[in-house]
Amino acid sequence: MLRSTEINPRQPVGLQELAALAAVAHSSLGPDKRYKFIQDDTSGESALVCSCFRIFENLELSSAVAQLVHETVQAQQKVYNTGSGCLLFLAGAWSRAALECVHRGISVSRIISGMSDGFDICVDVLRKCSISTDGLGAVKPDSCTTTSHGLGLQVSKEPITEDSRASLHLRGTTSVGHKTLNPSGHRKIKLSRHFCQPDSKNVSTAPQPHQVFNIAHIAEGLSHGCVRAMNLVVEAVKLHQDVSCSTFDVTKVVTCVVPGLPEERACVLPGCIVLLSDEQASVAHHLKDQPLKVALINGDLSHTFRHLGFSRPAGVQHVIEQLALGSDEEEVWMVKVVALLLNLEVNLILVSGLASEKVIQHCCRRRVLVVDKVKASILKAFADATAGVPVTYATQLTKHCVGTGVKVEIRRDLGGGSERKSSTAVNISTGGNSGLFTVILTSCVRGKLQALEDQFWACAYRLHHALKDRAVLPGAGATEMLCVHHLRQRAVTAYSTQESTAGGAADLDRGVVLHLMADGLIDYISTVMVNTGRVSKVRARTVVSQQLQEHDGHVDIAAKLSQLVLEGENEDSDLKSNGMDVYDNVSVKQEAWRKALDLLFLVLQTDAEVITGVDQATGAQENLMML
Amino acid sequence: MSRLVKKSPSLCVDLPLDNTDVCNKLRLLRQLMTSCYGPTGKLKLVHNNIGGHVVTTSTSSVLLAAISSSQPLVNLIKTSVLNHVSRFSDCGLFAACLCLDLIEQAKQSGLRGNVCIGLNRHFLAVCVSYLQREDCCCKVKLDFCSSHNLIALARSVISSKPACLLTEQETLHISKLAVQAFLLTLPCDKPGTVSLGQTVTICVEGHSVLNSAVFPGLLVDVTGVLCVNKSDNLSSHRMLLFSASLAGDIPELGEGIIEVSSGVDTDARILDQLLDLGKQAVEDDVKLFVCQKVIHPVLQHYLRSRGVIVIERLGITLMEPLILLTGAHPVATLHTSLQPKAYGKVRDLSIRQFGSKTLLHLLPHGESAICTMILCHRNETMLSELKLVCQKTEHVLRLTLREPYALFGGGCTETHLAAYVRHKCTDGVTESAAVLGCSESEYLLGMDRFCSSLESVAKSLEHNGGNSLIDLTHAHNWTVHADVMNRCVEG
Predict the structure, then answer these.
(1) Which residue, A49, A65, A145, A209, shows the most beta carbons closer than 10 Å to its own?
(2) Which PANTHER family match (chain B) (predicted)?
(3) B85 with B128, same domain?
């Protein structure tokens, strides 16, 4: 095979490509996301997508930069399940900034060091304006209603000192942007817009001790427009709270998608709910309301299945010595397994892999319920709750491996009848508290189910990360505004040192880079505003720059902005009038920004693409240089 | 086998360097190599034409391994550079740049081939003998009493690959770790022949580089299979290591055919044999059961239920360090009973968590020069480059044991050598030319070409269109061993 090499003489081609790819993410930013259809012209198939990573999943990417973008987005999605839109947008916005730098003749190494400095400034801002979620466990989730906004922000074990520090901070911020270094390094309130609002003085002068965050409040702020999905998450957390309070274990959540039911029917139920065929449902019917013994199989349930790494020998011939034995291997295996199962009195088998149709039928006849495609984490949860031990082969089962105390329950209300095959929802639960729960997602529009599921997981992970970080950021563009302010301040300092001392061109360049980086963030804020459908791009930009000028570093901008962004937010009209608090995740945002910059740096430093496996003819067509 | 394509008649081409196509390809390769060279070098995105995984790199070993050409000459150069890298780990780009530049200069000069070869060989000898002299001005003796020199050396290697995207602080951290790992692999107070230990590298994606660390002993990835009980306070644990697969299949059948009568269940028979092995291991009080390949889940289940820590799929790369660490003899078959001398020993076991990875930390029972380096980086492509660079650094540091000198980096050595050759060889041109069998003008032309090749390699460190000034202050250390340069010219 021939390989070939292409050298781009003009470097910014990669940056332009990155910026163009990032444009895809524009509509998936902010609380008001737009659906997109992706259509395959050749097959006529189409997909309905709502998030940036689903878009990339459905596109055919051949260029190296696109592939790199896709890998980065996937990495973000894998760990955080959210934030890929922000990542991609900023990668694009900052690559435009880098392009501008290149056009102005700033060297690549200076762009990189300038942007790294800019990122450090931003990280500093993120650290300083993060709001602690400590004290969460002190209050029962129900004691604060979701509308008790504006009061619940104060969190501290020593409310009075913290208050004074915060109000000090308030005075400090009008002049200097960052004077609140906390020597202990512990995350506490560094910034809260409530101390800056006119009516907030009452709050700080008359402190309400132990007024704490409640989880619904945080969740509401993290919903980012997916109110319904977040309500499900909150319900799930409430169910979960009895088990452990300060964290939200996403591994014990299952989603079950039921098409054909209206979206209002979505709900959270304890236990693990699966959809079963009629035959299996009839077995479940027999088994309902009695304690069951469960076998857990880690792998497929079939006679041909072998564990990973087992290689079937090629050169083995079976010699039949006697004719007319009749029974085939599968039959023998099945008889053996069923006998073993009956002997161990197993009524339920949970299989992480697949179970063959024949096995399911065979077991059904013996009133053993087989459920396959169970997630590994769920299998583990069952193992923990029932004291069962997952095994690889059914033949391996012994008395010690069998778990006890499982119940099945038929949920007639959830059965999806609209499918070709009717299905029955069955809840499998352990007697004790396994912490497992199922989120039922429903929609009459089948194509929307995927997006609903994605939204649910995004919300779940946002809350999970907020509780894990024990901190959130002021959302709705407030954090970005602060970053813009600090970046610009630093840029101005760089300009002035360039003028006054012999700092020279390096400082000037640094100033330019920081300034352009800030512009990228402004672009982000204004795009989010435009996506709400209330303002035009021009107006959004004007508003942002007005806010920046008027308040110049005053944190009040945060409040005004969130008001602006949220004006057209969602269906619940009582929320918007009160100016709901919006939060972002600390780690997710920081990591998304860092990934965006890393991606940009790689592309910025690249001058050539080496394509392997190109044949001579196509190479000549596409103007490639062959080696 | 039938031939699918009719074999075409052989085609003979002479003087390949006169062919413009070949020359263009060589020039392209030179551009590709020189643009990668140095700490500010440009990166290349390597991928296939159907949109596979993208590798971002400026490392010669990755880049050259990816390209292949229809021109045998290009392939020849490529292979010799790759050979060089496999032996010295470092200076692949330097070798490629110098080689391609010398070819180009030689062609431009219009000198006859054999004269050119003779001259280049002569000037190279001048350089090499100068570098080996005690009073050579462009090398420094490494001082092993302080780590400062070593860290500076490591740092210059690590900072030469921009695709790692390291900040100053991160570069320093990794340099220190590289030196620490290097020092841990040096055995202490061992009489007789000293053999160096090994550094095992484990990559953890998605974490800050500053979380990277070096540990003495060996860390093994046990993510997902974790079930270590609180280990008993024994001073040492007995361990057993298998190199044979314990998957329960019929191994190494080769071309032959096995006939099995239908009543016999071979899988069950082999499993019985495996369980017998397991039973013996439990009886012999084995606490750690490791297999290079797959272990049958039933055997794993049996061993775990008896409190044995089971690690499967160790992989071939970890076998040697584990053998060195524990003194175990790997068992290559399951058809004999276990010999007592096969057992190895581990002093201590503990669990360490690195991001998503759970690692089992094994400490040696006796003296051992094995250490493990955990490398963290934010994404895969930067991490793989960082891993390469760290391995390269380790190799470079090891080479200093044989020859404790480092050359000035940043192009200084090359410009210095060029200046030296120019100065040294202008005296006695007539005699030298006579010895080499060429005219004086040819000699001077050849010298000029050789020196400008060296200088152009130094100049290619600058990629942003800036001026490169020749200045002999010692900025960084860059290792170029004498024999490295030798190979460059011949390649």
Answers:
(1) A65
(2) MOLECULAR CHAPERONE MKKS, SYNDROMES PUTATIVE CHAPERONIN-RELATED
(3) no
Q: Could you identify the residue written with the tokens 């750690």?
A: B288
- Give the contacts of A301 (CB within 8 A, at least 6 positions apart): A349, A351, A353, A354, A355, A356, A359, A370, A372, A394
Option in A317, A595, A625 nearest B259 (CB): A317
Phi–psi pair at B62, nearest 5 degrees? -75, -45
Using CA coordinates, name the residue in chain B closest to A109. Answer: B40
Shared domain for B359 and B226, answered yes or no, is yes
Name the residue in chain B with its Cα closest to that of A59: B51
Residue, of A420 and B126, whose pLDDT is higher? B126
**For the segment A502-554, what is each residue's pLDDT rounded down to a tens digit?**
557 777 888 888 989 988 988 888 888 888 777 788 888 888 887 777 765 45
Report the chain A residue with the minimal C-alpha distance to residue B466.
Answer: A107
- Region B246-263: mean pLDDT is 74
Look up the CATH number of the domain holding residue B70: 1.10.560.10
Mean pLDDT comparison of A226-240, A404-418, A570-584, B273-287, highest-scoring range: B273-287
B271 touches chain A (CB under 8 A): no
Residue B194 belongs to a domain: no
Does residue B58 sit in the same domain as residue B125? no
Judgement on whether residues B56 and B124 belong to the same structural domain of the protein? no
**B174 inside domain:** no
What is the DSSP annotation of B4-26? SSPPPPP-----GGG-HHHHHHH
ipTM of the complex: 0.83
**Measured between CB atoms, which of B40, B43, B47 is closest to A67?**
B47
Distance CA B42, CA B464 (A): 10
Count of beta carbons in the 10 Å neighbourhood of residue B361 = 17
- Taking CA atoms, what residue in B is nearest to A313? B250
**From the CA of B132, how many Å to the nearest CA of chain A?**
36
B448 in the same domain as B345: no
Q: Given an 8 Å threshold on Cβ–Cβ distance, is B380 in contact with A109?
A: no
Give the confidence band of A443 by pLDDT, cuts at 50, 70, 90. Answer: confident
B6 falls within a domain: no
pLDDT at A465: 87
Domain with B275, as residue range(s), is 218-253+266-367
**Considering the domain boundaries, does residue B375 fall inside one?**
no
Of A392, A612, A613, Cβ closest to residue B297: A392
Boundary-marking domain end, from B105, B124, B154: B105
CA B298 – CA A344 distance, rounded (Å)? 18
- Work out the pLDDT band at B180, boundaries 50, 70, 90: very high
pLDDT at A425 > cutoff 50: yes
- Decide: A238 and A141 in contact? Cβ < 8 Å: yes
CB atoms within 10 A of CB A232: 24
Give me the number of domains chain B comprises. Answer: 3
